[in-house]
Amino acid sequence: MHCPFCRHADTRVIDSRTAEDGSAIRRRRQCPSCGRRFSTVETSSLTVVKRSGATEPFSRDKVVAGVRKACQGRPVSDDDLALLAQQVEETLRSSGAAQIDAHEIGLAILGPLRQLDEVAYLRFASVYSSFSSLKDFEEAIAILRAERADRGPAGQDDGLTDGSADLGPAGEVEQAPTH
Fold first, then answer.
1. CA 130 to CA 140: how far, in whole Å?
2. Among 18, 75, 110, 122, which residue's beta carbon has the most beta carbons within 10 A?
3. Sequence spans of domains, the chain
4. Residue 74 and residue 30: Cα distance in Å, rounded?
5. pTM of structure
6. Strand partners, 42
7. How confident is the model at residue 169 (pLDDT cuts 50, 70, 90)?
C-alpha cells in the first residue's frame, strides 16, 4: 500500500476492524517514511456477468429497483427492500465466487422475496421465470399453498384462495354470496 502523502511504497497496519456490517475491513495504517497515519477500507469485489457477456459491479440498488416493481401496491417498506438486498448480497458472497451470473442473482432474490410477500414473489417469478401461461401461475400458487400448509395451522386465510371474491365489470371486488 503506497502512502498517500509521500508515496512511499510500503506502509504498516496498526489496527484492523470490520466495517459496514462485516462486508468490509477498515485498516489504520502508518507510513514508516513520513510517519503519517491514514485509513483504508477493503472490500471484496463482486462482479455480475450479464447475459450479453458484459460485466459490471454488483449493486444492491439494482436489486432493490427490480424488486420494488414487483412490490408496487404491496405492504412492503423501503427498509424491507434494503434488508432483502442485503440478504441477496450475503447469499451471493457466501458462494465464494468473485463473478456471479445475472441469472444467479434472480435465483437468490426468489427465496427472500417469497418470505417477504407472496404476491410480489409471484409477480417477480412470472417475469424472471418467463411464465407463458396460466398453468405456470397455477403451479407456482400450488407450491406456495403446499408450503403454507406444511408450516402453518389450517384454516388461515392465505390470500391465495379462489372463489371468495370476484372482480366485477369495473374491476371492483364483489363478495361471493354467503348462505
1. 12
2. 122
3. 12-43, 47-149
4. 51
5. 0.61
6. 25
7. very low
